[in-house]
Amino acid sequence: MSKTIVVYYSAQGHTKRIAEKIAENLGADVFEIVPKEIYSEADLDWTNDDARATREHDENMREVPLESVDVPNWADYDTVILGYPIWWGIAAWATDSFVKAVDWSGKTVYPFCSSHSSGLGDSDVRLHDLANGGDWKDGVRFFQDANDGAIAKWTDTLKA
User: Can you name the residues that pair with 35 across neighbouring β-strands?
Assistant: First the structure.
């Protein structure tokens, strides 16, 4: 029997809401990626050259230490739904850190992102390139305020 988990990073709650709805729709477990140093609203102000996220992006300092990458019973999951916000056209850095740290062998991975204005871009491909294995499927992009119907439309395709 297939076992599914939704793993996500959310800086402002948009991706979290979508991830929780996906998990509810699929009857999946949930694991939140949490940076050791949480991003504040000021840290995320992309219009400010001195904001933490801007500096990390511009100076290629995207290795974000995480609270934990130890997902309980990780070996039991064969399907992973991986969610993240889009920052500068790519996955938020905490997502990269998680993807690099875990063993994706034997996992089927369905990436999704949330964004106000940016598309998926090649974020799903970039994450796949960072991973050490797994069967990575094409990603999907949700508007940050995606309604339950839009989310269900996608999760219904995963149930088939």
Answer: 66
Distances (CA, A) of 157 to 24, 49, 110: 15, 41, 11
SS (H, E, C) 49-79: CCCHHHHHHHCCCCCCCECCCCCCCHHHCCE
Question: Is 111 in a helix, a strand, or coil?
Answer: strand
* Encoded amino acid at 50, one letter: D
pTM: 0.91
Name 110's Cβ contacts closer than 8 Å, sequence gap at least 6: 79, 80, 81, 82, 137, 139, 140, 158
Q: How many helices (H) and strands (E) does the chain have?
A: 5, 7
* pLDDT tens by residue, 92-130: 889 999 999 999 999 999 999 998 888 787 888 889 999
